[in-house]
């Protein structure tokens, strides 16, 4: 019975069926299933499949967004139970589109994928100045700073942010991830970033890898 409802959660999530995800998540709780099992084997498992399909170009941005919203609807049911069950975030990520760039769709997808993988996410929005990233890092408790750029003219802001973190003496306290259409692995290496992610699913994988080191 338990495995059936977990499959129902995954299937509903992959279809982007928010009402279905909510209903099946509530059903799983009513059946007495462990919150961690519902999270890991239902919601996260479903979102991982979506991420892999997106990587392989089997689905596209609209489908990812719809499934991510369904995932969030299920998470909203489970989150009140997290503390009592001892479930901790996989890590804390600060994300934003850098200064000089107003694009947010890619950043929003990455943010949703992080949340779907049980990361705590602080979204700074678009056109984020260097100082705002640095101030977020200074507050402590941040594991990853993820910066997005869709314009070649704004890419230098990533380099400036890393230099500012170095000057502040906190560069070694956070991992830096960069991404966006014009960004490459070579560029990430040249500015001293810890990781480059070509898409949202890869961003989650890279973050998990960095936090294991």
Write up what this structure looks like:
- With 213 residues, the protein is an alpha/beta fold.
- The protein has two domains: 2-85, Methionine synthase domain (Methyltransferase, Methionine Synthase (B12-binding Domains), Chain A, domain 1, Orthogonal Bundle); 92-212, Rossmann fold (3-Layer(aba) Sandwich), CATH 3.40.50.
- The protein is 59% helix and 11% strand.
- It contains nine helices and five strands; from the N terminus they run ααααβαβαβαβαβα.
- It has helices at 2-15, 18-30, 35-55, 61-85, 105-116, 130-138, 156-167, 185-191, 200-212, and strands spanning 92-97, 120-123, 144-148, 175-179, 195-197.
- Strands 2-1-3-4-5 form a five-stranded parallel sheet, with helices on both faces.
- Helix 1 runs antiparallel to helix 2 (18-30), helix 3 runs antiparallel to helix 4 (61-85) and helix 6 (130-138) runs parallel beside helix 7 (156-167).
């Amino acid at each position: 019975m338990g495995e059936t409802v977990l499959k129902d959660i995954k299937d509903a999530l992959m279809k982007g069926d928010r009402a279905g995800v909510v209903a099946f998540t509530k059903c799983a709780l009513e059946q007495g299933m462990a919150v961690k099992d519902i999270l890991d084997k239902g919601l996260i498992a479903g979102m991982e499949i979506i991420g892999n399909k997106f990587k392989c170009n089997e689905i596209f941005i609209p489908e990812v967004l719809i499934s991510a919203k369904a995932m969030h609807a299920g998470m909203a049911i489970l989150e009140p139970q997290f503390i009592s069950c001892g479930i901790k975030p996989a890590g804390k990520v600060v994300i934003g589109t850098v200064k000089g760039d107003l694009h947010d769709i890619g950043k929003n997808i990455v943010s949703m994928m992080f949340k779907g993988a049980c990361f705590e996410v602080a979204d700074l929005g678009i056109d984020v100045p260097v100082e705002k990233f640095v101030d977020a890092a200074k507050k402590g408790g941040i594991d990853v700073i993820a910066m997005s750029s869709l314009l070649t003219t704004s890419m230098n802001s990533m380099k400036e942010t890393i230099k500012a973190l170095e000057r502040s003496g906190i560069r070694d306290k956070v991992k830096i991830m960069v991404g966006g259409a014009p960004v490459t692995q070579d560029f990430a290496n040249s500015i001293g970033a810890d990781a480059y992610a070509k898409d949202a699913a890869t961003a989650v994988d890279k973050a998990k890898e960095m936090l294991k080191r």
